[in-house]
Amino acid sequence: MAKIVAVFNQKGGVGKTTTNINLTTALSLEGYRILVIDIDPQGNTSSGFGIEKNNLKKSVYNAIIHGDDLKEIILTTSYENLHILPSHPDLAGAEIELTNMPQRELRLKNSIENVKPFYDYIFIDCPPSLGLLTINALAMTNTVLIPIQCEFYALEGVSQLMNTISLVKQGLNPQLEIEGVLMTMFDSRTNLSNQVVDEVVDYFKDKVYETMIPRNIRLAEAPSYGQTIFEYANASKGSKAYLALAKEFIQRQE
Ligand code: ADP
Ligand code: MG
Question: Any residues with Cβ below 6 Å from ligand 1, and which?
């Protein structure tokens, strides 16, 4: 049965999507069977895997709103072990459509059950908000992986994030746990990056991964070619970091 991991931080631009694309690819290269779910209406994870999201007949939208069978929606990728449940721009309206629907927080959870046996890990890329789409992700996931950018206001918003997690634990998902905290866009040459890491470690203790993702231009360039870092720049610092993260992630499961 798959373990579900939501990549979550309501702040935008912290590296959720980059992590989602490249960590899942690294895990698939290690032989794990992965499903990536893109519930961000912007669909950057989907396009990062080279999917033309505007031309899709069906997307995660149909699963959430109409309860369509995921097996009809999931797409294969150029990686044998990696499948994706793509996003679609229509998803932007789903937040509002969901408001009056029964079990509005559990729509995705209900539709995932019949594909869980086919995967080792299911990763969800969350939008940068605390709306109903994010709540659907938090309600169904086993753990959250929190990327934090090495910047001056890194911890800003973290108490709100932890508050959301604890509210979800009290109601929708009592088993919810923190998978790990990932420092992104780390620059070892600056004192600031090192200070931010110290602060985050103070707060999250051993939840913080030893692997940190460096600021690497290749990571930022790859999505515009619809490629993961392993296709675009396999020898880059970015690809090495995400491979190391995948190994640390797996080690922590044991
Ligand atoms: P989020 O999904 O949290 O909004 P993204 O993964 O889209 O964040 O990252 C925000 C921007 O920063 C994107 O343009 C992305 O290409 C870039 N980026 C992310 N991680 C790195 C990194 N380690 N080095 C350089 N640029 C990065
Ligand atoms: Mg994103």
Answer: 12-18, 44, 128, 184-185, 213, 215-216, 219-220
| Integer Cα distance of 58 and 50 in angstroms | 16
Instruction: Give me the DSSP letters along 62-102.
Output: HHHHH---GGGT-EE-SSTTEEEE---TTHHHHHHHHTTST
Q: What are 75-128's pLDDT values in tens digits?
A: 999 999 999 999 999 999 999 999 999 999 999 999 999 999 999 999 999 999
Is pTM beyond 0.90? Reply is yes
Which fold would CATH assign to domain 3-253? Rossmann fold (3.40.50)
Q: Using the atom order of ligand 1, give the atom closest to the CA of residue 215.
A: 24
CA of 21 to the centre of ligand 2 (A): 10
List residues bridging with 6 in a β-sheet.
124, 144
